[in-house]
Amino acid sequence: MRDSDEDKDQAGAAGSNSPLADHVYDEILSQIVSGPLEVGAKMPSENDYCRMLGVSRPIVRVALSRLGADGIVERKRGSGTYIKRRPSQRLADFVQPGDIDVLLQCLEYRIEIEGLAAGLAAQRRSDKQLIAIKSAFDRLSTEAVSDFITPESDLAFHQSIAAATGNIFYIDTMRMIQEQTVRLLTVSLNMARDRNKGRIGRVLEEHNAIYEAIVTGDPVMATAAMRIHLSRSRRRLTAATKDLNN
């Protein structure tokens, strides 16, 4: 059956920045986090969510598609939608469900922007800028000894890399998203430390890989290391408590 005109109108508004799609995403994610369904369980149908949440199918599809991109659900053609990964209920201790989507979108943006910035930093950094990056990394290393990295130290490392690009737009971008980045780091670092003491060590190793690639002037490795780090950060944000390997 074809979507109604109303559904088509809502479909046009169901882009990644749609407040209605954000709301549905948050509602479904909250149900997954706190509900009784386990990993592998089949979720309600699109029509069920339409009735429960009072929205059209295009809106539900956008929300489910984004949950799929975040690795939380898996949509099987002709079968339905299933829970692929259930975030820890401890996530609610650090962030409101309504904020999770914003933080994930921030990470999605950072993966691309900071990946490019790291590659440019590897090519362009001056000796003075390399000293600043090393100073920021040494601060991270000192904190990690106590199994704790502060959001401010993490942010300083990433900002020092942006500065080393010599491009004002990368520098300004990091300033523009500073508030969201600090919120994101606060949640992700607390989650990492809360779940497994070894995770802070792995976070430091990821930063070290970025730093070493910049030191050696390898833009390809620097870009890859940054993207791997931020992609793993995104996964850590929504991983289950028992998922301790990333």
> In the CATH hierarchy, what is the class of the largest domain?
Mainly Alpha
Order of helices and strands: HHHHEEHHHHHHHH
In CATH, the topology of the largest domain is named: Four Helix Bundle (Hemerythrin (Met), subunit A)
Mean pLDDT: 85
What's the tally of helices?
Answer: 12
For the record, the count of structural domains works out to: 2
Give the distance, in angstroms, between the N- and C-terminal Cα atoms: 43 Å
Helix content: over 70%
Quick structural overview:
The chain contains 12 helices and 2 strands. It has 2 domains: 5-83, Arc Repressor Mutant, subunit A, CATH 1.10.10; 91-238, Four Helix Bundle (Hemerythrin (Met), subunit A). A hairpin with a 3-residue loop joins strand 1 and strand 2.
Summarize the helices and strands and which ones pair or pack:
Elements: H1 5-12, H2 19-34, H3 46-53, H4 57-69, E1 73-76, E2 80-83, H5 91-94, H6 97-124, H7 127-144, H8 151-163, H9 168-176, H10 178-195, H11 197-215, H12 219-238
Antiparallel strand pairs: 1-2
Helix pairs in contact: 2-4, 2-6, 6-8, 6-10, 6-11, 6-12, 7-8, 7-11, 8-9, 8-10, 10-11, 10-12, 11-12
Notable traits:
Arc Repressor Mutant, subunit A; 246 residues; disordered N terminus; mainly alpha; elongated; Four Helix Bundle (Hemerythrin (Met), subunit A); disordered C terminus; two-stranded antiparallel ribbon
Describe the protein.
Residues 18-86 form the HTH gntR-type domain. InterPro entries: GntR_C, TF_FadR/GntR_C, Tscrpt_reg_HTH_GntR, WH-like_DNA-bd_sf, WH_DNA-bd_sf. It holds the Pfam family FCD. This is FadR/GntR family transcriptional regulator. Keywords: DNA-binding, Transcription, Transcription regulation. With 246 residues, this protein is mostly helical. The chain folds into 2 domains: 5-83, Orthogonal Bundle (Arc Repressor Mutant, subunit A); 91-238, GntR ligand-binding domain-like (Four Helix Bundle (Hemerythrin (Met), subunit A)), CATH 1.20.120. The protein is built from 12 helices and 2 strands. The chain has a two-stranded antiparallel ribbon. β1 and β2 form a beta hairpin. It is elongated.
